[in-house]
C-alpha cells in the first residue's frame, strides 16, 4: 500500500483550501460521484479527496485542458496515485498545452519514490520519455530507486523497456556491470537474474556480443560461480537451465559441475580447484534439491531405459525425502518418463 | 486410534551460511508462519465462514474505511471481490441489495464503451472485467437488470481502439500494455459474445512471447518492428502510439527479438495462461500448425509447482522465485493447475501414483496425529478415486496455509500474518481454497451435450463488427467455456466437510447447481452459465446426473 504521508510537501502555511473554497475555481461545477445519496459499499473519502475528485469530474465533463487542470490532477494523484483517469487526463492536458516535459519529469522524480508500487507513475514516465527521447539519465534514476525497493516489478520492467525501446548501444553498455552490482548486494534477487537473461539472450545481438560461443562460456562460468557461492539459490539454477534451454544445449554439458551438489556430504578428497566446476562452498546445505532435479533431467534427456531408471530414483528421493511438498509432481515426472521407455 | 508424536518441526529454507536480504526476510516470515502451525488436534482451525461473511457484509453495508481511497479507481473490483467471495461462501443476496449493486456498477459504464473505476472515470479493461463478472452474479435481463444496459457495440469499439500491432492491448487509452488487461478483455468478450477474428488476431502470439526462461509469464513483451518489406538488421525503435491503424500497415512485427518485460510472476502467469486457454478455440482454424504460436507447457508446470512453498511456509504459494508466500497466489498459482488440465497436463488419470520404483507405502490422507479429517480418508493407489484426488500441486498443504495463516482472527483473509485482511485477499484466498478442495475439468460428456443442444445463429441483435466469427468457432467458444464440470469424488477437504466452500447444490433432484469456481472466469459455473446462455441465445441442457 503506497504511503500517503511521505508524499505531502505542503507546510502548515500553505494548507490547501478545498477547491470549492477557491475563487479561481468558481466557474467549474463540481460533480458528485453518485446521484444516489447512499450508494452501496461506499468508500469514506477524506473531504479533501472528495472535493478534488468532484471538481475533476466537472472538468472531465467540460473537457477543459488548462494549467489549473495540472494542479487539480496533481492534487488527486498525491492523494491516490492509482487514479488512472487523473493520470490519463493529465497527460492529455500536457500535450494540449505543450507543457515543458522536463518540469513534469522533475515532479515525477519525486512522485516515483513516494509511489513506487503503482503502475501509473512508471507508465507516465514512459510517456514522457517518448517525448524527451533522452533515456541516458534514466538509468541512474532507476538504479537509485532500486536501492529503495530492489525487486520492484515496475522499476525493472521500466528499465527493460527503456533499453529495448531506445535500443542504443551506449545504453546497453553498462548493463552487465549493473547486474553484477545488484547481485553482489543480494545474489538471491531474481529480478536481477531475469534482467541479466534479458540483456544477454533476449534483446538481439550488439557490438562485442557476436561471438556466441564465448558468451555462453562466460554465462555458464558466471552462474556456476554464483551457485558455488550459494548452492540453494533457485534463481541461479533457473538461470542455468535458461541458458541451456535457450541455446538448445544438452544439460549433460554441466553434469560434472552439478554432481557434487546432489551429494549428501562435501567431497573433501581433492584439493584441486577446478575453475570449470567450482565446488559447493563449505557452508552449503547438501544435498541441494535443485541439483538432484537437474541430474534427473540430465538422465531423462539423455534417454534410454537405464538413464530413465536413474532419473526415476532421483525423483523418488525428492518425492520421499528432499522435496516432499512436491511429491505428486515428482511422481508425475517418474510416470511420464517411464511411459516413454515402455 | 494410537496417539503418535507430533511431526518434527519443518526445515527452514537453507541459507548456505550466506545471508542476504532475501534470506533474512524469508527467515522472518518463516518464524512467524511457524507459530501458525497448529501444535495439536485441539488447535485445529476451521474455516471461520461466519466471521469472514461478517467482514464482507460490513464493507458492503457500512462501507470501506478511508484507506480504501487507494481503490477509488477500482470500485467495481471492490464489489466483485466482495460478492464473489459471498458465492464461495454460498451466501446469496436479497433482491434489494442486488439492485443497488447493479445500479452502482452501471454508473461506471463509460458513454463511449467499457467500464471505468467509478462514475466519471475513463474506461479501463480491468474494471470492465470486474463489472461484467459482478453483473453475472447480481444482474438479470430486462429494465434495470444491467445485462441489457451493457453497450456491447461500444464496448467492442473500445476494445478495438486499444489494440496494438503486436496483438496486445493497452489497458486504457494512453496506458500500459499487460496481460492482465488481455485476460480481462478476453473473459469479457467470451462472456458477452464479442469475440471476432480481428479482435484476437495476433493475441495468442503476444501471450506466448511473455513466457520467460523460468517458465512463468511476465507482464508484457517488447515488440521490435522492421520496415516492410525487407527486415533491417538493427530494428528502429517502435513508436507505441495509441493509433494502431497507420502503424499496422507500415511496419512488420519481428518474430525475434520479442523480450518479456519483467520476470515470471504468479498474477501475470494466471492471466496469460487463462488467456491462452480462451484462445484455444481459434487455434485449429488458423492456418498451418507450425506457424501457430507455442508455449512451453512443461517449463510452465515446473515453475508453477516450484512456486509452492515448503512445509515451513505451510505450503502457500509465492508469486516469484525467491519471494515470499502470499495468500492471493493460492488462486493465481494454485488455480492455474486446472487450466493446465485443459492443455492435457495432469488431468485425472495421468496423476495416479507410478508403477516405477515403488515408494513401498500406501497413501494415507488422514494426518498422523489425527488433527485433520479428510473428506475421503484413504484409498488404494491405483483406483479411479486416487486419480481424482491427486493433483500436481500439494492441495492439502495449500488448504493448510489458507486455514492456518490466511485467516485473520477478526474475519476476512489476508496475504500472511500479521497483515490485515482485505477484500482482495479474502476473495483470492477463498477461490484458491475452492481450487484446492475441488477438481474441475473440461468434461467431454458435457461438451457433447452442449454441442447437440446448440442453436445456430441465435444471439443478441446488435451487430458489433464487420469481422464475424464463423459459427463453428463461436459454438466452440461457448462449449469450451461451459464444459468445465466438477468431478464428483474429486474433493479433498482439509478439516472436514464443514470447511467446504463452493458446494454443489441439488434442487429437487432435477437441476444441479454447479457452485464450484470456474477456473478461467473466477465466477461460479452456474453464474457463468447464466450470463453466457443469455448472450449467446442458447438454452442449456440440464446436466446429466
From TrEMBL, chain A:
Enzyme Commission number: 2.5.1.58, 2.5.1.59
As cofactor, the record names: Mg(2+)
Classification via InterPro entries = Prenyl_trans_a
According to the UniProt record, one GO cellular component term is: CAAX-protein geranylgeranyltransferase complex
Recorded GO molecular functions are: CAAX-protein geranylgeranyltransferase activity; protein farnesyltransferase activity
Record Pfam families: PPTA
Keywords in alphabetical order = Magnesium, Prenyltransferase, Repeat, Transferase
- What start and end residues bound the annotated signal peptide? none
Origin: domain of life: Eukaryota
PANTHER family the record matches: PROTEIN FARNESYLTRANSFERASE ALPHA SUBUNIT/RAB GERANYLGERANYL TRANSFERASE ALPHA SUBUNIT (PTHR11129), PROTEIN FARNESYLTRANSFERASE_GERANYLGERANYLTRANSFERASE TYPE-1 SUBUNIT ALPHA (PTHR11129:SF1)
What's this protein's family per the entry? Answer: Belongs to the protein prenyltransferase subunit alpha family.
Q: What is this protein called?
A: Protein farnesyltransferase/geranylgeranyltransferase type-1 subunit alpha
Q: Which organism is it from?
A: Tricholomella constricta
Automatic annotation (TrEMBL), chain B:
- Check the record and name the InterPro entries matching this protein: FTB (IPR026872), PGGT1B-like (IPR045089), Prenyltrans (IPR001330), Terpenoid_cyclase/PrenylTrfase (IPR008930)
Catalyzed reactions per annotation: L-cysteinyl-[protein] + (2E,6E)-farnesyl diphosphate = S-(2E,6E)-farnesyl-L-cysteinyl-[protein] + diphosphate
Which UniProt keyword terms apply here?
A: Metal-binding, Prenyltransferase, Repeat, Transferase, Zinc
Give the co-factor note. Binds 1 zinc ion per subunit.
GO BP annotations of the record are: prenylation
Segment Disordered: which positions?
Answer: 1-28, 224-250
The EC code for this enzyme is: 2.5.1.58
Cofactor(s) needed by this chain: Zn(2+)
Q: Where is the composition biased (Low complexity)?
A: 14-28
The keyword RNA-binding belongs to this UniProt entry's keyword annotation = no
Superkingdom of source = Eukaryota
Q: Pro residues bias: where?
A: 1-13
Entries under CDD domains matching the protein: FTase
Show where the Prenyltransferase alpha-alpha toroid domain sits.
47-446
- Pfam families per record: Prenyltrans
Gene Ontology CC terms, in alphabetical order? protein farnesyltransferase complex
A Gene Ontology molecular function term of the record: protein farnesyltransferase activity
- Which spans of this chain does the record mark as coiled coil? none
Matching entries from SUPFAM superfamilies are given as: Terpenoid cyclases/Protein prenyltransferases
How does the annotation summarize its subunit structure? Heterodimer of an alpha and a beta subunit.
PANTHER family assigned to the protein according to its UniProt record, in alphabetical order: GERANYLGERANYL TRANSFERASE TYPE BETA SUBUNIT, PROTEIN FARNESYLTRANSFERASE SUBUNIT BETA
Can you tell me which family this protein belongs to?
Belongs to the protein prenyltransferase subunit beta family.
Describe its function.
Catalyzes the transfer of a farnesyl moiety from farnesyl diphosphate to a cysteine at the fourth position from the C-terminus of several proteins. The beta subunit is responsible for peptide-binding.
Q: What is this protein called?
A: Protein farnesyltransferase subunit beta
Q: Which organism is it from?
A: Tricholomella constricta
Lineage start:
Eukaryota, Fungi, Dikarya, Basidiomycota, Agaricomycotina
Amino acid at each position: 500500500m503506497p504511503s500517503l504521508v511521505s508524499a505531502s510537501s505542503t507546510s502548515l502555511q500553505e494548507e490547501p483550501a478545498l477547491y470549492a473554497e477557491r475563487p479561481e475555481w468558481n466557474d467549474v461545477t463540481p460533480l458528485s460521484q453518485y446521484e444516489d445519496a447512499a450508494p452501496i459499499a461506499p468508500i469514506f473519502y477524506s473531504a479533501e479527496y472528495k472535493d478534488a475528485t468532484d471538481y475533476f469530474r466537472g472538468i472531465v465533463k467540460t473537457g477543459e485542458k488548462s494549467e489549473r487542470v495540472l494542479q487539480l490532477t496533481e492534487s488527486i494523484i498525491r492523494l491516490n496515485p492509482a487514479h488512472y483517469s487523473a493520470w490519463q487526463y493529465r497527460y492529455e492536458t500536457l500535450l494540449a498545452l505543450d507543457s515543458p516535459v522536463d518540469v513534469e519529469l522533475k515532479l515525477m522524480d519525486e512522485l516515483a519514490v513516494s509511489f513506487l508500487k503503482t503502475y501509473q507513475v512508471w507508465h507516465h514516465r514512459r510517456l514522457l520519455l517518448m517525448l524527451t527521447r533522452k533515456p541516458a539519465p534514466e538509468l541512474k534514476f532507476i538504479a537509485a530507486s532500486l536501492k529503495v525497493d530492489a525487486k520492484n516489478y515496475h522499476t525493472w520492467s521500466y528499465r527493460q523497456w527503456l533499453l529495448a525501446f531506445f535500443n542504443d548501444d551506449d545504453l546497453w553498455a553498462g548493463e552487465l556491470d549493473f547486474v553484477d552490482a545488484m547481485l553482489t548486494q543480494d545474489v538471491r534477487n531474481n529480478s536481477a537474474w531475469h534482467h541479466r537473461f534479458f540483456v544477454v539472450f533476449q534483446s538481439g545481438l550488439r557490438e562485442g556480443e557476436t561471438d556466441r560461443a564465448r558468451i555462453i562460456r562466460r554465462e555458464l562460468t558466471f552462474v556456476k560461480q554464483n551457485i558455488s557461492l550459494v548452492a540453494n539459490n533457485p534463481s541461479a539454477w533457473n538461470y542455468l537451465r535458461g541458458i541451456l534451454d535457450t541455446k538448445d544445449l544438452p544439460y549433460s554439458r554441466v553434469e560434472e559441475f552439478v554432481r557434487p551438489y546432489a551429494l549428501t556430504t562435501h567431497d573433501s578428497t581433492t584439493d584441486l580447484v577446478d575453475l570449470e566446476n567450482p565446488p559447493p562452498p563449505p557452508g552449503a546445505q547438501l544435498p541441494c534439491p535443485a541439483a538432484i532435479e537437474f541430474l534427473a533431467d540430465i538422465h531423462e534427456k539423455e534417454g534410454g531405459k537405464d538413464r530413465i531408471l536413474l532419473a526415476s530414483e532421483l525423483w523418488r528421493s525428492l518425492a520421499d525425502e528432499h522435496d516432499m511438498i512436491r511429491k505428486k509432481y515428482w511422481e508425475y515426472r517418474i510416470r511420464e518418463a517411464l511411459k516413454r521407455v515402455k | 486410534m494410537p496417539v503418535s508424536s507430533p511431526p518434527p518441526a519443518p526445515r527452514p529454507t537453507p541459507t548456505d551460511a550466506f545471508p542476504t536480504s532475501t534470506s533474512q526476510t524469508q527467515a522472518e516470515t518463516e518464524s512467524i508462519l511457524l507459530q501458525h502451525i497448529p501444535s495439536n488436534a485441539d488447535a485445529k482451525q476451521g474455516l471461520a465462514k461466519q466471521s469472514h461473511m461478517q467482514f464482507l457484509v460490513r464493507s458492503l453495508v457500512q462501507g470501506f474505511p478511508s484507506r480504501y481511497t487507494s481503490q477509488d479507481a477500482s470500485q467495481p473490483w471492490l464489489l466483485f471481490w466482495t460478492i464473489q467471495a459471498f458465492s464461495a461462501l454460498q451466501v446469496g443476496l436479497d433482491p434489494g441489495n442486488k439492485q443497488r449493486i447493479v445500479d452502482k456498477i452501471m454508473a461506471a459504464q463509460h458513454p463511449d464503451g467499457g467500464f471505468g473505476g467509478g462514475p466519471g472515470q475513463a474506461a479501463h479493461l480491468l474494471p470492465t472485467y470486474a463489472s461484467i463478472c459482478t453483473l453475472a452474479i447480481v444482474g438479470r435481463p430486462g429494465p434495470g437488470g444491467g445485462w441489457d444496459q451493457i453497450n456491447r457495440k461500444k464496448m467492442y469499439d473500445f476494445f478495438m481502439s486499444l489494440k496494438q500491432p503486436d496483438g496486445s492491448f493497452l489497458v486504457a487509452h494512453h496506458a500500459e500494455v499487460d496481460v492482465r488487461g488481455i485476460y480481462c478483455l478476453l473473459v469479457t468478450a467470451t462472456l458477452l459474445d464479442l469475440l471476432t477474428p480481428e479482435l484476437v488476431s495476433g493475441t495468442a502470439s503476444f501471450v506466448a512471447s511473455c513466457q520467460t526462461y523460468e517458465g512463468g509469464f511476465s507482464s508484457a513483451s517488447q515488440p521490435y518492428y522492421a520496415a516492410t518489406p525487407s527486415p533491417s538488421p538493427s530494428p528502429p525503435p517502435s513508436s507505441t502510439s495509441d493509433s494502431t491503424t497507420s502503424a499496422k500497415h507500415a511496419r512488420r512485427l519481428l518474430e525475434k527479438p520479442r523480450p518479456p518485460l519483467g520476470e515470471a510472476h504468479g498474477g501475470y502467469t494466471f492471466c496469460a495462461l487463462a488467456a491462452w486457454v480462451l484462445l484455444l478455440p481459434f487455434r485449429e482454424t488458423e492456418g498451418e500448425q507450425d506457424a501457430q504460436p507455442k508455449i512451453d507447457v512443461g517449463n510452465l508446470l515446473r515453475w508453477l509447482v516450484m512456486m509452492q512453498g515448503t512445509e515451513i511456509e505451510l505450503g502457500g504459494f509465492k508469486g516469484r522465485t525467491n519471494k515470499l508466500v502470499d495468500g492471493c497466489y493460492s488462486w493465481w498459482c494454485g488455480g492455474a493447475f486446472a487450466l493446465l488440465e485443459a492443455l492435457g497436463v495432469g488431468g485425472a488419470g495421468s496423476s495416479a501414483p507410478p508403477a516405477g520404483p515403488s515408494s513401498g507405502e500406501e497413501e494415507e490422507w488422514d494426518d498422523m496425529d489425527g488433527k485433520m479429517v479428510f473428506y475421503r480418508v484413504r484409498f488404494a493407489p491405483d483406483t479411479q478415486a486416487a486419480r481424482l484426488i491427486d493433483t500436481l500441486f500439494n492441495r492439502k498443504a495449500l488448504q493448510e496455509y489458507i486455514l492456518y495463516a490466511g485467516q485473520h482472527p477478526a474475519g476476512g483473509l489476508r496475504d500472511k500474518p500479521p497483515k490485515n485482511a482485505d477484500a482482495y485477499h479474502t476473495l483470492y484466498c477463498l477461490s484458491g481454497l475452492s481450487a484446492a478442495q475441488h477438481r474441475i475439468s473440461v468434461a467431454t460428456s458435457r461438451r457433447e451435450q452442449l454441442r447437440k443442444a446448440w442453436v445456430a445463429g441465435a444471439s443478441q441483435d446488435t451487430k458489433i463488427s464487420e469481422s464475424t466469427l464463423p459459427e463453428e468457432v463461436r459454438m466452440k467458444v461457448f462449449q469450451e467455456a461451459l464444459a468445465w464440470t466438477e468431478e464428483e469424488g474429486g474433493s479433498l477437504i482439509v478439516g472436514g466437510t464443514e470447511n467446504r466452500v463452493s458446494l454443489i447444490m441439488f434442487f429437487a433432484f432435477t437441476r444441479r447447481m454447479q457452485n464450484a469456481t470456474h477456473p478461467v472466469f473466477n465466477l461460479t459455473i452456474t453464474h457463468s452459465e447464466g450470463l453466457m446462455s443469455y448472450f449467446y441465445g442458447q438454452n442449456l441442457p440440464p446436466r446429466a446426473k
